[in-house]
Each structure stands twice: as structure tokens, then as C-alpha cells.
Design brief:
The complex is a heterodimer of chains A (about 325) and B (about 325). Chain A is mostly helical. Chain A is built from 16 helices and two strands. Chain B has helices at about 1-20, 25-55, 65-80, 80-85, 90-120, 125-150, 175-195, 200-210, 210-215, 220-245, 255-270, 275-295, 295-300, 300-315, and strands at about 155, 165-170, 170-175, 250. Classes of the chains: A mainly alpha (about 325), B mainly alpha (about 325). The interface between A and B is large, with 41 and 37 residues.
């Protein structure tokens, strides 16, 4: 177990219990929670755990803010989507699309990193925002290729057409990717990233080229996001701007990382689970609350089911101020 | 000195370069005025952001919300006063426009004050948390727009006096664009005068160069900070109101949509430089209109291209500030 988790144990009984429950819940989801909606939620949790964990590698471990994470997520999704929709549903096409997506992601991450990580973190944040916006425009403009705003619906090859097989494939690959990321952050490379986050000058003075390490982290995070994009596209059998590239998803990722806990991959797990569940079920709860507050001034508008993001935003701000280590940090105390 | 004036020459150079490609002089005049108008509006929205960054080293990702609030403030007043706008006289149009613009500035400035006070103040000097906090503010206040004004697009009729066009020779020039250029030029001139010719401006510039030194000379730099933050937010509100009237509609996402363009302009100009922001905004506005006419598919990406070119030429923007 220790080897599987790369020596990075939950270090809190409650956290360990929650994680075990989550793993059991996801593994048994098709039988315990029947229905399309709950299976969709379970698959989304698995994919977003990988997506958020790879983002935490940047934000929590390296201390740089990127707004291009959804771009890499989208590259993965469109890699599968374009290959499946244009070349037909075959394993060869899937492989070609996925490998091209990974190559493109790494190339872009490398270019952005080398160009803008030399200067200050804030510059990187702005550049990634601009590049991501450009990519979004590109995806909607090249509609002959990407399906524009409508996106692409496609069929997946062979056994993946079975929902149950697809679900377990997504789950197993997600788990493997998460454990891989855990390996990365607990490796000597991960330690250097932490050192850079804590004290940039000192890390450079000891002799680590911080640009190289940051660019490396950027590339690894991009690979993680691309893989998550591939999984999500395979699960949904659809790729479009709203499910992969939209800025709303970038905001969601930020919320998940910060609420779950920056600088620990378990935070990504809790954050992603909490958020995806809230996204799907909090609205029902708020509908009740909004109905109960009927007749009072302003309160029904604030509790309107569409306003769930407002409350998560407030929680996000409170987290940044008072619980910078998020839920996991609280549990570990 | 060459360093100071070379970027300035880029604006007429770009305009001159576009002329042979566009081909016809009247079209070129129309496009150039449209580009300048767009540039001026972007400048108004971006100047606050770059000023706040230069002085306080805070990059406010929630700046888009100030733009949206300005637009909604103006829309609220204008829809109430639609009667005055139908009268079709300049005086009654102005009687609707001026309160609308004042409401936009006041609302955005108030929000800016709240932001500085509650959200940004505890995280000065910590970039990572600044970005996160201002993103949080962006989420919450964009949702508040939904709560207060609803999620629907609000159509915004333009007052009669500034719709329609002037015909100069064969070129049609929209009146609203001329108005935008005039307002933008006034704002730039006022900012330039304030920063370079007044005592407050001297303090602001000194604060940008070396905050501790200004403090040790006995000035309360904190008050200057707040004033600049509020003024910058007010400018964003003004820009937002002008932008909304230009688009003739208001949506909750409009601030965020322009914000990317605003960031690009701020990067092009050099973080913290008002003059650079002005040149960058004009370049971006002109280029967007020329490419929009010549190659519509390219238009949306033209600003990114411009940013890459500028950064290859001057990696820290057109007018980099003294400190890195």
C-alpha cells in the first residue's frame, strides 16, 4: 500500500476513511447507484480527479497559476474527437489521435514555459489566459475540422461501446494516472518543485535551474490534463467547447483545487468529488431552500438553483484567506 | 529618446501599411476611425488595470467585473430614461447620457473601493493569493450580476444624437465612434496631465518607482493606493459603459470577454505603463478592424499575433517599467 501511494499516506484517519469510501463508491457505482445520471457523475468525478490533480502539480506544488489547463484538457478531447469522427471508430485511429494530442500538448506547454516562465509568475498567468482564449477561438472558427460550437459526436471502438466497460476503463486509467502523479510529486523532482515554491532564489542558488523545473512541471501537468481530456471524450462520446475548453471549467478547476486543498493531491480528490457532486445535487437542495425562502426580499434570488456557483465562490475566497490548505489541511491537523 | 518615440510611430505606421491592402481610401478612413474608437475604449478599460499593477503590484483578475458593473450601471439609467432619448435633441440626449455615465463610474468605483478594502488589502505582496482572491471576487460578483440584473441580455438603445454617420467625401464615419475617440483622447490627456503635471501624479510615479522611499519621506502611500484603485475601477466602469453602448447590449459575461483583450493590451504596453497601454490599445483596435475587413477568420486571433510580435521585439512590452 505504501509503495502504491509512493509513501505519501493520507496522514489523517478521517481523510483515509473518506478516500476509502470514495474508492469503494466509485468501484461499485454501477451496481450501488444505478441510473445514467449517477454513473455520469461517477465517471466525471474520476476524470476530474486526474484533471485537478495535474493542475495541483502546477498551483499547489510549483506555485504558478496557469489558465491554460482547459486548453490541454480540450486538446485531449479534440484529439479523440477528431480522430473518431473523421477516421472512423477504430483502435488505430484512437491511438493516432491520442498520440498526436499528447505531442501537441507537450510542444505547446514547452513553448509557453520557455517563453514566459523566465519572468514572473504573474506574467505566466496572463500569457496562458491569452493563449487559452486564442485556442478557444481557434476551435470555434475551424468548424469544418472541430465541429465549431456544436462540437463532435462520435462512436468509440469495439468494447468501449459497452457503458460498463467504458466506465471501468475510465476508472482504472484515472486511478493509474493519479498514482503516477503521486509518484511524481514524491520523487526528487517533486521535492525540487516544492523548494522552488517555498523559495525561488534559494533553489536557484543551490543550483537548480528553476526555469527547467517549472517548464518540466508545466509539461507534466499538460500531459495529465490531456489524458483527462482523452478519458472524458471517450466516456461522453462527444467533444465540444462547452465540455472541455470553456473558461467556466477553468474556474471550476480552480475552485476544486483550492477548496480541496492546494499542495496535496488528496485535496484534488476531495475537491473534485465535492464539486462534481455539488454541481449535480446542490441545485436540488437550493431549489428547496429557495422555495422555503419564498416571499422574503432578495433571499430567493440568492438561493436560486442557478446561483450555486456564488456560494462556492464565497467558500473559495474564505478558503484562500483562512484555510489555505483546504479541507485536507484541516483534516490533517 | 528613440526608445520612447519608436513605439508611438507604430500606430501611424500600421495605419499606413494597411492602406494599400484595403485598397479604397473611404473604406480605409472608416476602418481607421473604427479602429481608433475601439482602441480608445479598450484603453479606458485597461488603463486602470495597468495603473493598479504599476503602483501596487496587484494584477486584478476581477477587473472585468468593474467593466460589467459600469455597463450595467449605465444600462439601468439609460433604460429608465429612454423617454429623454427619444426626443432627438442633443440636450435631452445628454441629460440621459451624463447621468448614465456618472452612474457607471460611481458604481464601478464603489465596487473597486470594496474590492481594495475587503479582498485585496490582506494579500498585498503575495501574487499567488492575489490571483486566487481576485478570481474568487470575479466568480462571486459575476454571479451577483445575475442576482441583481438577471441572466438575460439587456438591449441598450443608443441615444439619437450619436447614432447615424457623418459623410466625409465618400467615407461614412459613425458618430458614436467619433464620440468614443474624443472621450478616449480626453481621458488619456487628463491622465497624462494628472500623472506628469500634478503633485498627486508625482507621488503616484514616485510610488511606482520606489514605494518604501516615498513612505519614508512621510507620505501615506496607502491613501494613494486606495485612490488609484478606486479611480482605476471608475475608468473601467466608464470604458464598460462606452463599450456597452457600442455593442448596444449588456450581458453578464461581457466583462470577462473583454478582459482577455485588456490583458493583451496591458502586456503589449508593458505592465504598469499608461503610455504603453495607450499605444497598445490603439494598435490592437486598428489591427482588429483591418483584419476584420481583410481576413475575417483571422480577426479574432490578430491580437495574440500582435502580442507575440511585440514580445519578440521587446520581451517586457513597449514601455517596460524600471523594475523587473
Amino acid at each position: 500500500m505504501r509503495a502504491l501511494l509512493s509513501g505519501d499516506l493520507p496522514r489523517s484517519r478521517v481523510l483515509a476513511l473518506l478516500l476509502a469510501l470514495l474508492v469503494l463508491g466509485l468501484a461499485a457505482a454501477p451496481f450501488v447507484f444505478p441510473g445514467t445520471r449517477s454513473l455520469n457523475v461517477a465517471a466525471k468525478v474520476a476524470v476530474f480527479v486526474v484533471l485537478v490533480a495535474s493542475y495541483d502539480l502546477l498551483l499547489g506544488y510549483t506555485g504558478i497559476v496557469s489558465f491554460a489547463h482547459t486548453m490541454f484538457f480540450g486538446i485531449g478531447g479534440y484529439g479523440v474527437g477528431i480522430a473518431m469522427a473523421r477516421l472512423g471508430p477504430g483502435w488505430g485511429a484512437l491511438l493516432a489521435g491520442v498520440s498526436l494530442a499528447f505531442l501537441l500538448s507537450i510542444a505547446i506547454a514547452l513553448a509557453i514555459g520557455l517563453l514566459s516562465l523566465r519572468v514572473r509568475a504573474i506574467f505566466f498567468a496572463m500569457i496562458t489566459l491569452a493563449v487559452a482564449a486564442f485556442f478557444q477561438i481557434l476551435a470555434s472558427q475551424l468548424s469544418a475540422f472541430t465541429g465549431g460550437e456544436d462540437g463532435l459526436s462520435f462512436r468509440t471502438p469495439g468494447l468501449l461501446r459497452e457503458r460498463l466497460v467504458a466506465y471501468y476503463a475510465v476508472l482504472v486509467v484515472s486511478a493509474a494516472l493519479f498514482l503516477g502523479l503521486l509518484r511524481v510529486v514524491n520523487s526528487p523532482f517533486g521535492r525540487v518543485l516544492l523548494a522552488i515554491r517555498e523559495n525561488e532564489f534559494r533553489a536557484e542558488a543551490i543550483g537548480y535551474r528553476i526555469v527547467h523545473y517549472r517548464t518540466g512541471a508545466n509539461c507534466l501537468a499538460a500531459v495529465g490534463a490531456t489524458a483527462a481530456g482523452v478519458l472524458y471524450a471517450v466516456w461522453l462520446r462527444y467533444t465540444g467547447p462547452q465540455t472541455t475548453l470553456s473558461f467556466d471549467i477553468m474556474v471550476d478547476i480552480l475552485l476544486m483545487v483550492v477548496i480541496g486543498g492546494m499542495g496535496t493531491l488528496y485535496g484534488a480528490v476531495l475537491g473534485a468529488t465535492l464539486f462534481v457532486v455539488a454541481q449535480n445535487y446542490l441545485q436540488d437542495l437550493m431549489k428547496l431552500a429557495s422555495g422555503a425562502a419564498h416571499g422574503l426580499p432578495l433571499l430567493p434570488a440568492l438561493l436560486h438553483p442557478d446561483r450555486w456557483l456564488l456560494w462556492l465562490g464565497v467558500l473559495f475566497i474564505l478558503c484562500v484567506y483562512y484555510f489555505p490548505t483546504g479541507i485536507v489541511g484541516r483534516l490533517r491537523r | 529618446m528613440k526608445d520612447r518615440y519608436l513605439p508611438l510611430a507604430l500606430v501611424p505606421a500600421l495605419a499606413a501599411l494597411a492602406l494599400p491592402f484595403v485598397g479604397s481610401l473611404p473604406t480605409w478612413v472608416t476602418l481607421t476611425v473604427a479602429g481608433l474608437a475601439m482602441g480608445m475604449m479598450i484603453f479606458m478599460m485597461a488603463s486602470g488595470l495597468t495603473l493598479v499593477f504599476g503602483l501596487m503590484d496587484v494584477l486584478n483578475f476581477a477587473h472585468g467585473v468593474f467593466i460589467s458593473f459600469g455597463a450595467y450601471g449605465a444600462a439601468t439609467v439609460l433604460t429608465r430614461m429612454s423617454g429623454a432619448m427619444q426626443a432627438d435633441s442633443l440636450a435631452s440626449d445628454l441629460s440621459a447620457m451624463l447621468p448614465a455615465v456618472a452612474a457607471a463610474i460611481a458604481l464601478a468605483a464603489l465596487l473597486g473601493w470594496f474590492f481594495e478594502r475587503v479582498l485585496v488589502r490582506p494579500v498585498y505582496g503575495d501574487h499567488l493569493r492575489q490571483i486566487l482572491i481576485t478570481m474568487g471576487g470575479l466568480i462571486v460578483f459575476e454571479q451577483m450580476i445575475h442576482v441583481v440584473w438577471g441572466p438575460e441580455i439587456i438591449p441598450l438603445p443608443r441615444p439619437g444624437a450619436i447614432t447615424g454617420s457623418f459623410i466625409v467625401g465618400e467615407a461614412a464615419i459613425e458618430r458614436y465612434r467619433v464620440a468614443a475617440v474624443v472621450v478616449g483622447a480626453i481621458v488619456f490627456a487628463a491622465l497624462w496631465w494628472l500623472l506628469n503635471r500634478t503633485r498627486i501624479g508625482l507621488l503616484v510615479r514616485a510610488g511606482v518607482e520606489n514605494r518604501e522611499m516615498v513612505e519614508s519621506l512621510g507620505y501615506r502611500i496607502r491613501r494613494v493606493f486606495v485612490a488609484v484603485f478606486v479611480a482605476g475601477s471608475g475608468l473601467a466602469g466608464l470604458g464598460g459603459a462606452m463599450w456597452a453602448m457600442y455593442q448596444e447590449q449588456v450581458t453578464p459575461q461581457m466583462g470577462m470577454q473583454v478582459l482577455v483583450l485588456v490583458f493583451i493590451v496591458v502586456i503589449i504596453g508593458g505592465l504598469g505603463s499608461v503610455g504603453g497601454c495607450f499605444v497598445g490599445a490603439l494598435l490592437a483596435g486598428l489591427l482588429a478592424n483591418y483584419t476584420g475587413y481583410l481576413a475575417p477568420k483571422l480577426a479574432l486571433g490578430s491580437n495574440i499575433l500582435l502580442m507575440v510580435l511585440v514580445l519578440l521585439w521587446r520581451p517586457r512590452g513597449l514601455y517596460p517599467l524600471g523594475r523587473a
